Each structure stands twice: as structure tokens, then as C-alpha cells.
Amino acid sequence: MIKLFSLKQQKKEEESAGGTKGSSKKASAAQLRIQKDINELNLPKTCEIDFSDQDDLLNFKLVICPDEGFYKGGKFVFSFKVGQGYPHDPPKVKCETMVYHPNIDLEGNVCLNILREDWKPVLTINSIIYGLQYLFLVLLGYAVHWMRYITCDRCVYNPWILTGAKPRRPPEQRGCRGPSEQQTPV
Q1: What residues contact residue 125 under an 8 Å CB cut-off, 6+ apart?
Q2: What is the DSSP letter of 109?
């Protein structure tokens, strides 16, 4: 008890003398946690992180370049905005690349359960990155059927749909109609 009193008195003396501890800005809980998450980050080989401002760890970009699956060869950029409520509130993640994906809408909002209703403070930035990478590697059965139906007539002729992604097979082998087989307006 006496030690605590003496430490408190010593701290007051340092503050009144203009010590560095009293004048420094305290880091928020979000900044401390994001610093810890970044130090423990274990990125897959297909992902890169870009901090445009080295002093602002709460805003950064993630680049995912899948090396297998339907989106092989694509380059997809996500922006992360970590709020002051982190880790109790999930970060805001948006896809900046225009992509045709069942879990990403046209405004870039990502539908990933751990970014919404299943978020828990124990989850880290690393778990979000692996979740985003998983979206591009594994499409659920219904999504694969949906994507094949949608992309058969459009992916070769509308390049914005699969930005940067190369079709796995030529259109003829996928059952798509080539430009010569399409109906021309009369």
C-alpha cells in the first residue's frame, strides 16, 4: 500500500516537472490491438498489405492475387478502416476492385459472416484476411452453378466483370456463343 502511494506521488512530481510521460499522447485500445495484430500477422503468399501512411495503422489496403480457383490471375484490392471500437466492433472492409462475385456487391461491400453477426473480439485481422482469401478460392456449390450461368455469355465480352481474371477455358469449350454465333439486331 505504501509503495502504491509513493508511485502515485512520484508520477505527480514528474507531471509537474514537465516530464515526458505527462506530455505524450496515449494510444487508444484500438491502436494497441491493431499494433499487436500486425506484429502477429502471418500473410499467405497470395496477399500483400499496403500502409499508405506508416503512422496510421487503422487504415490500410490488402491486395489478394489468387493462384487457383475461378479467380486465378486476378488482383483484388480491399480497404480496411478500423474504428475506435476495435476489437469489440469489426473493421469496415470494402472491395475497391470491380468484381463479379456472389459475396461482393457493386458498391464493394463484402458479405463475410465474421465481419458482421459472427464477429467476436477474439478474432484478428489475420482471420479476416484468411476469410477474404477463402472467398476467392472456394465457391459454394450453388455459387459455382450461379457463376457459370452468369459468366458463360458475359465474361469474355465484358472484361469488367472479372477484372484481371483470365477465363480457364476458351468460350467454345464452355458452351458460350462466340461473336459470330450471336444474333445481330435487324
Answers
A1: 34, 37, 38, 41, 80, 91
A2: B
Counting every residue written for the chain, the total comes to 186
Picking from 63, 42, 44, 41, the residue whose alpha carbon sits closest to that of residue 52 is 63
Contact 62, 49 (CB under 8 A): yes
pLDDT for 54-90, tens place per residue?
Answer: 889 999 999 999 998 888 889 999 999 999 999 999 9
Main-chain dihedrals φ then ψ at residue 104, nearest 5 degrees: -130, 125
Q: Is 111 a catalytic residue?
A: yes
- In angstroms, how far is CA 182 from the centroid of its own chain? 38
Radius of gyration of the chain (CA): 24
Exactly one of 111, 152, 155, 176 is catalytic; which is it?
111
127-157 exposure pattern, b = at least 16 Cβ within 10 A, e = fewer:
ebbebbbebbbebeeeeeeebeeebeeebbe
Matching residue, cell 435487324: 186
Confidence band, pLDDT 50/70/90 cuts, at residue 13 = confident
What proportion of the chain, given as a percentage, has pLDDT over 70? Answer: 61
CB 71 within 8 A of CB 162: yes
The pLDDT tens digits for 105-146 are 889 999 999 999 999 999 999 999 999 999 988 765 455 555
